[in-house]
TrEMBL record, chain A:
GO terms for cellular component: plasma membrane protein complex. Keywords: Cell membrane, Membrane, Transmembrane, Transmembrane helix. The chain crosses the membrane at residues 24-45, 271-294, 315-346, 366-386. The lineage of its organism: Archaea, Methanobacteriati, Methanobacteriota, Stenosarchaea group, Methanomicrobia. This is ABC3 transporter permease C-terminal domain-containing protein. One of its GO terms (biological process) is lipoprotein localization to outer membrane.
UniProtKB/TrEMBL annotation, chain B:
This is ABC transporter. One of its GO terms (cellular component) is plasma membrane. It comes from Methanoculleus sediminis. Residues 2-235 form the ABC transporter domain. PANTHER family: ABC TRANSPORTER ABCH.1 (PTHR24220:SF86), IMPORT ATP-BINDING PROTEIN (PTHR24220).
Length: 400, 235
């Protein structure tokens, strides 16, 4: 058994060492590219999901969002509810928001979008919008005549509007008039412009809760309370915890808040990924099969000679399987290198999706899965042609 | 000892049946150097293929050292070839990717011999066939005669009880052919090596202890031709 494997390895190595180096390099390169293809698409899909999750948590709704119970427009007793939620271990911040549709006017231009009323300090404890100011400053608690505007709504130069609401050139210090849904209008000084690259956030504007409550006639009320947790990924557990504290309002995780959009997107991406994986693996099978088939046909006589001098056909077949394993292993290693290069490039120059920049998220499990599937198909594709030639009658093989 | 009884071999080519062997019976004793001769198409290579377990007869029986080799499974036949037979092909049949030394020790590797042992033995055998300074050369770097010597060394490395050679000098000039035949004669006389060799060259007869001449798949003549050691054998 051991000597058989030793002979297979000996024959395989000599064939690799002294066979056509050009063919070997080309085959390894093809396997490497197939490997990159197997890993790349899942890494982009995973990146899209990570981007959506990050954008949702960091800029849009936090980890969880508490909304008014059915039939109510606002959450009442916001202060008390905030205190109740914040005492739950693992909850690191809450931020009440008042949401209203508004029309913005600037130098004869207007755009309809969303206006939020926030408590700046609370907002800082949940979202990271304050860290993404591209001009001016974030709101302060006492601001009543100030507004901060997303870069898309402001129409900042260089920011792609793509049919989204835009005031085409608002700058810090400019005045913007806002028409509230109750008919009230206010003029605000633009205190800052932010750019999060999340289109839902960059098309919105923020004033303080104090200002917006005054305009809308609200008192200790909010359209939603965003909740930030210490760790991501445990939203369901925190949701149960919040509900167990007697919160009567609706509590949604950020995924639930998206209304199944992400799940649907992931499902669609997974179908595309499955098709791409299947095509890649079929290409791998065909390439390895052709390489080993040509190899064995060219060495038909040699295989006959090996059998004639007393070498078992399984040893001969295994020598080809070992060659395939070597090619696949080196191909996978080269593929890992190429993939690292692509990942590095796309990390420096990310793909831009509507939800924000997408960085490839290469998961170890995806790499292992790709390596395993590549090895599996390569061994099968290498074994069959080797087996077909090796079982041939000795004299027929020797005569070629 | 080889005992072949009433061997027939019929090839079917489309609708035509070709009877390569029509009932050959032959015994080769230990230490004999038997030459199988005959015209082209007389069945001599077919007979050697069957004795070398590379082919199966249509009917008949072959016993080698008491083993009914036709009853063996393919795997057992492979092992039998590995352990008991040495085969020298007309066109050398070396593995091109291997050096002379690697070609020779390959079968020892299969037998699981320790590295030091098979390296020493293979090197020694290559020296004995006059290739001590060519052991690291590959097939493409060796002359026809040298390639055939490597093939002989490969056939002998596992001390086979029988050495079978299928027209080993067919592609060699007369000088090189003579040196190969001298080598066979020396092996036969010094080591009592049993050799069965197919040839169609008349001048080879002087080397054989016995000549079996085939005609149309049958033994036409069997002649004991050499009683004394051949001068080329060096005994």
């Amino acid at each position: 058994m051991f000597s058989g494997i030793r002979v297979s390895a000996f024959l395989a190595w000599k064939s690799i060492q002294r066979g056509s180096q050009g063919t070997l390099a080309l085959t390894i390169m093809i396997i490497a590219l197939i490997f990159v293809n197997l890993v790349f698409l899942p890494s982009i899909i995973s990146g899209v999901v990570v981007t959506f999750d990050t954008q949702s948590i960091d800029f849009d709704v936090g980890n969880l969002v508490i909304e008014p119970r059915e039939g109510s427009r606002y959450i009442d007793g916001v202060d008390g509810l905030q205190k109740k939620v914040e005492q739950i271990p693992g909850i690191t911040g809450t931020s009440p928001r008042i949401t209203a549709g508004a029309t913005f006017f600037y130098r004869g231009r207007n755009a309809a979008s969303t206006l939020y009323g926030i408590t700046p300090e609370d907002e800082r404890s949940v979202t990271r919008i304050a860290e993404y100011m591209t001009a001016g400053e974030f709101l302060s608690g006492g601001d009543t005549d100030a507004i901060i505007i997303g870069a898309t709504l402001a129409g900042t130069e260089g920011v792609e509007e793509g049919g989204l609401p835009s005031l085409e050139g608002v700058e810090v210090g400019d005045s913007v008039e806002v028409a509230y849904p109750n008919g009230e209008t206010r003029t605000y000084r633009v205190k800052g412009i932010f750019e999060t690259q999340s289109f839902g956030v960059d098309t919105a504007a923020f004033v303080t809760t104090r200002e917006m409550s005054g305009v809308l006639g609200l008192d200790d009320q909010a359209s939603a309370i965003l909740v930030k947790t210490a760790v991501n990924g445990r939203e369901e557990a925190y949701k149960r915890e919040i509900l167990s504290y007697g919160v009567q309002e609706d509590v949604l995780t950020f995924r639930e808040k998206s209304g199944g959009f992400v799940e649907q997107a992931i499902q669609s991406f997974n179908i595309i990924n499955a098709i791409s994986t299947l095509v890649s693996l079929i290409i791998a099978i065909v390439v390895v099969f052709i390489v080993i088939f040509i190899n064995t046909v060219n060495r038909r006589r040699q295989i006959g000679i090996l059998k004639a001098i007393g070498i078992d056909q399984q040893i001969i077949i295994n020598s080809y399987v070992l060659q395939v394993l070597f090619i696949t292993a080196v191909g996978a290693l080269v593929g890992i290198g190429l993939n690292a290069g692509v990942t590095t490039y796309l990390t420096a120059y990310p793909l831009v999706f509507p939800g924000g920049p997408v960085y490839p998220d290469v998961e170890a499990s995806a790499i292992l899965r790709s390596i395993a599937s590549l090895f599996a198909v390569s061994v099968v594709a290498g074994y069959i042609p080797a087996w077909r030639i090796a079982r041939e009658d000795i004299l027929t093989a020797i005569r070629g | 000892m080889i005992v072949a009884e009433n061997l027939t071999r019929v090839y079917t080519m489309g609708r035509v049946e070709v009877r390569a062997l029509a009932g050959v019976s032959l015994e080769v004793a230990r230490g004999e150097f038997v030459g199988i001769m005959g015209a082209s198409g007389s069945g001599k290579s077919t007979l050697l293929h069957i004795l070398g377990l590379l082919d199966r007869p249509t009917s008949g029986r072959v016993t080698i050292d008491g083993t009914d080799v036709l009853a063996l499974s393919d795997q057992r036949r492979t092992q039998f070839r590995l352990n008991r037979l040495g085969y020298v092909f007309q066109d050398y049949a070396l593995i091109g990717e291997l050096t002379a030394l690697e070609n020779v020790y390959l079968t020892s590797l299969v037998r699981g011999a320790p590295k030091a042992e098979y390296l020493e033995r293979s090197t020694d055998i290559l020296r004995r066939v006059g290739l001590g300074d060519r052991i690291d050369h590959r097939q493409s770097e060796l002359s026809g005669g040298e390639q055939q010597r490597v093939a002989i060394a490969r056939a002998l490395v596992n001390n086979p009880s029988i050495l079978l050679a299928d027209e080993p000098c067919a592609n060699l000039d007369s000088q090189t052919s003579k040196s190969i035949l001298d080598l066979f004669a020396r092996l036969n006389e010094e080591l009592d090596q049993t050799i069965v060799m197919v040839s169609h060259e008349d001048w080879h007869k002087e080397y054989f202890c016995r000549i079996v001449t085939l005609r149309d798949g049958l033994i036409g003549e069997m002649v004991e031709c050499r009683k004394e050691p051949h001068p080329g054998g060096g005994a």
